[in-house]
Amino acid sequence: MKQYMVTRPLYSEDAFADVHEKIHRHHKTVRHHVKQYFTLTKNGVCVNCSCDLKRAKNAALSLLPFIGWMRIYQLKEWLLSDIVSGVSTGLVAVLQGLAYSLLASLPPWYGLFTAFFPVIVYFFLGTSRHISVGAFPVLSLMVGAVVTRLVPDEGPPVNITGFEGLTSDEQRVMVAASVTFLMGIMQLTMGLLQVGFIVMYLSDTLVSGFTTAAAVHILVSQLKFVLGLVVPGLSGPLSIVYTLEKIFVQIEKTNVCDLVTSILIMVVVFIVKEINDRYKAKLPVPIPIEVIMTVIACGVSYAFNFRVNYKVDVVGRIPVGYESPMGPNMQIFGQTAVEAFPMAIVGFAVAFSVAKVYSVKHDYIIDGNQELIAFGASNIIGAAFKSFAASTALSRSAVQESTGGKTQSVLGAVVIVNLKGMLMQIREVPYLWRRDRPDCVVWVVTCLASILLGLDLGLAVGLGIELLTVVFRAQFPRCSVLANITGTDIYKDRKDYMSIYEPEGVKIFRIPSPIFFANIDFFRGKLVEVGFNPLRVLRKRNKALRMIRKLLKKGELSGPIEESEDESNMEELDQPTDFKDLPVQVNWNSELPANIHVPRVDVHSLILDFSAVSFLDISALKGLKAALKELIRVEVEVYIVACDAYILKKLHSCMFFDDEVKSSMFFLTLHDAMLHILEKHPGFYRNVNFDVFYV
User: Fold this and answer.
1) Where is the chain membrane-spanning (predicted)?
2) Which residues does 499 contact at the CB level (< 8 Å), separation at least 6?
3) How far out from the chain centre does Cα 323 lie?
4) Taking a C-beta distance cutoff of 8 angstroms, is the pair 628, 640 a contact?
5) Mean pLDDT in the chain?
6) CA 20 to 30 Å from 23, out of 36, 152, 373, 597?
């Protein structure tokens, strides 16, 4: 086993600062940052302060990332594979756009717009080279919830200016485009404000539970197409329950042709997808089974005239070309702002997560803020051309199918089969329960809330539960008492190891989290559990001194007395013990005269390990100082070790130190403090081999 040996002085923080000069760093204020990047010209126009060629070049590369990778594009090596990948990915976007339009409660051909316009914009602005932008089932379902709320299947639409003279489908397209436009504005604004970090608050566990719930919603929403039933679209809390109720009430009206077609397609697509997954290393391009089955179903439907003979709903003829662009409806903005924000967050979170996976795999960097700008612009421009919310589609690996009359049951079956990955995430629950139960609670609560309350409210509930688990983890962390691993300068939890050494009268308490207003009382309570209640001991000692003084005045110190229960003037009892008018100093651990009893304190030194403490707020600072004073006043020496330089600086700036709490209690490492204690109390450790500690 390799060994190392270091010879150095024993350092407290003060001693280390005296020997090693520290570099003074000037920390810039917000004003300095603003002044560095922007300045006002004489004409009052805001321009870059270093407006030279290099900065302009960097700005262009940042805003238009495609310029950077186009410069390094290897034409001969990459072009052919990119063409194959682009054709296969782009063509399946057409099919998925048609299918996911059903989730958005829109005519299917509007999915074609979502498969086209956002991709073009993202090409110029996005930083990921591998994600495929287009319709995403979760977002499509969220759009559909808004659409059916404002333009329900049954009953009149919400009274909105601009709906006059429009058909129901045209009203729904206006709602979907407007909410997508608003979603894009929110994403673009967050990108410009550099708040891409907001996605970090959506953990993988939360996203997994949320998307699983979304898959359940999608599955239920497609049952009406698979069964050939007429079920109005519903939204809001418990909408999934009401939808299932309406389906089962008319289950006997199921169109057998729709059902058989759907089951047949789902079985075939599922089997071929499993083959694609198993033999993906050997297949040059995965078998485009969704497109193949759609083409076959299209031909069979046309040949046997399913619409007339079997009453099967079909998409029918798809209009040629694109529709004229339109602006968003401002009144719809006010009606949909609450739904648009979670859509913006979910769309970006999913896209960024997928992009991050590919960037790590292929060794390039993605910019979260630029991704927000890219998706914001994609959704704004796409919405102007009547597309609905776009994000990253997770399964773009098929071949094109762009024309023909496809049956609704075929598109529903395609959607359901593609839910397998999201539905199978439920297998994570047993693993999370065994490994991390708070995370498991987040998954289950997010999933159930999203299923029962709807995706928007479910996401809010999941985020709230997730933040609560973070607070609880920080508020009630696992504190530990450490001991020395014999023959080393290493200290570990004394419950975990056998070969340990604990010096008599020394306790080492490790605090494994930040200390703030919510957990300072918890830590003070844990300190009491480690040894004793210092405030109680201090009050007992001061009460004992009162009685001793009274007995001395009366000359009755040798006789037994009863302890007074007078609790008046408690502030005096909390002050340091004062021996100034006594002929001798009291040894509190020895037997006291006159049957005076004071709790014995067997700890003379307490070490607080601050190596995992990242910050203290003002409330914690006050509570910590009070706790330290209580310990010091009962003659317990306190040492704080491995304290972060930022925290130490804050303690100085907040006037933390005084005549009782001194900066000399801070030591560089735990072992430095232990050696200091052993040298200061040699009488306790006459039989200790100090060479063990001077490793």
Assistant:
1) 79-103, 109-126, 133-152, 200-219, 225-244, 256-273, 285-304, 440-465
2) 485, 486
3) 40
4) no
5) 82
6) 36
Return the structure tokens found at 338.
């609450």
CA distance 581 to 310: 108
Question: How much is the pTM?
Answer: 0.74
Choose the weakest-confidence range: 3-12, 38-47, 659-668.
38-47
CB 380 within 8 A of CB 135: no
Task: Decide: residue 360, CB within 10 A, 0-12 exposed, 13-18 middle, 19+ buried.
Answer: exposed
- Residue 528's Cβ-count burial label (10 Å; 0-12, 13-18, 19+) is middle
Contacts of 571 (CB under 8 A, 6+ apart): none
497, 612, 669 from 500: Cα distances, Å = 7, 22, 18
CB 92 within 8 A of CB 400: yes
In one-letter notation, the amino acid at residue 616 is L
Q: List 461's β-bridge partners, or say none.
A: none
Tell me how far apart the alpha carbons of residues 349 and 200 are, in angstroms, rounded to a whole number: 8
Taking a C-beta distance cutoff of 8 angstroms, is the pair 595, 602 a contact? no
Q: Which residues contact 289 (CB under 8 A, 6 or more apart)?
A: 268, 269, 272, 273, 276, 398
Q: Which of 152-156, 275-279, 302-306, 406-410 has the lowest mean pLDDT?
A: 406-410
Cβ atoms 645, 544 nearer than 8 A: no
CA-based end-to-end distance of the chain: 16
Distance CA 113, CA 100 (A): 12
Read off the tokens for 67.
């310029």
Q: How far apart are CA 182 and CA 328, in angstroms?
A: 8
41 compared with 108, residue with greater pLDDT:
108
* CA distance linking residue 374 with residue 321, whole number of Å: 25
Contact call for residues 126 and 65 (beta carbons, < 8 A): yes
Round to whole Å and give the CA distance between 412 and 102: 8
Amino acid identity for residue 346 in this structure: V
Q: Give the whole-number percent of the chain exceeding pLDDT 90.
A: 32
447-474 as b/e, with b when 16 or more CB fall inside 10 Å?
bebbbbbbbbbbbbbbbebbeebeeeeb
C-alpha 250/C-alpha 229 separation (Å) is: 8
Place of tokens 């200091």: 676
234, 290 Cβ separation under 8 angstroms: no
Q: How far apart are CA 579 and CA 552, in angstroms?
A: 13
Length of the chain: 695
- The whole-number pLDDT of residue 548 equals 77
3-state secondary structure of 255: coil
d(CA 584, CA 567): 25
Distances (CA, A) of 431 to 196, 204, 211, 357, 559: 30, 14, 18, 22, 68
- 606-624: pLDDT as tens digits: 999 999 999 999 999 999 9
Give the CA angle between residues 481, 487, 490 to the nearest 5°: 40
Q: Give me the amino acid identity at 345.
A: I
Helix (H, G, I), strand (E, B) or coil at 585: coil
